[in-house]
Design brief:
Elements: H1 10-20, E1 29-30, H2 31-42, H3 50-62, E2 66-70, H4 73-79, E3 85-89, H5 91-102
Antiparallel strand pairs: 1-3, 2-3
């Protein structure tokens, strides 16, 4: 079954909902924090498969719904960890999420997220 152009999968809508639910309009988050947020929303003890999550993020970025950037390597080095790729929802992504919700998608998608790493 093929989906129509612009139609979101539930996981994509949940990702956009988590990113859009951040308190700061320009907030960014990394994939692992996003996976934890999605697992918490579903009341699950396991994280969303990272392969599935990152493929969905790549599709959303290709569609212009999210943008990403690598954090400054000095920050990661200071914290003693690998660099993180940071994601941010775009206006296009917010509009796609609104259209998805207007189509009668369950409320769990729209619950505001607790994510957000302020830009450095």
């Amino acid at each position: 079954m093929r989906r129509r152009p612009g139609q979101l999968l539930d996981l994509e809508a949940q990702i956009l909902g988590a990113l859009a639910g951040s308190s700061a309009a320009d907030a960014e988050t990394h994939g692992f924090a996003l996976a934890k947020e999605l697992a918490d929303r579903r009341g699950s003890q396991r994280l969303t498969s990272h392969g599935t999550l990152y493929k969905a993020l790549a599709r959303l970025e290709g569609a212009g719904a999210v943008t990403s950037r690598w954090e400054d390597s000095a920050i990661a080095e200071r914290d003693g960890r690998p660099r993180r790729r940071l994601y941010r929802v775009t206006g296009t992504g917010r509009a796609a999420l609104r259209a998805h919700l207007d189509a009668g998608v369950p409320e769990r998608v729209a619950r505001p997220g607790r994510l957000g790493i302020e830009p450095s």
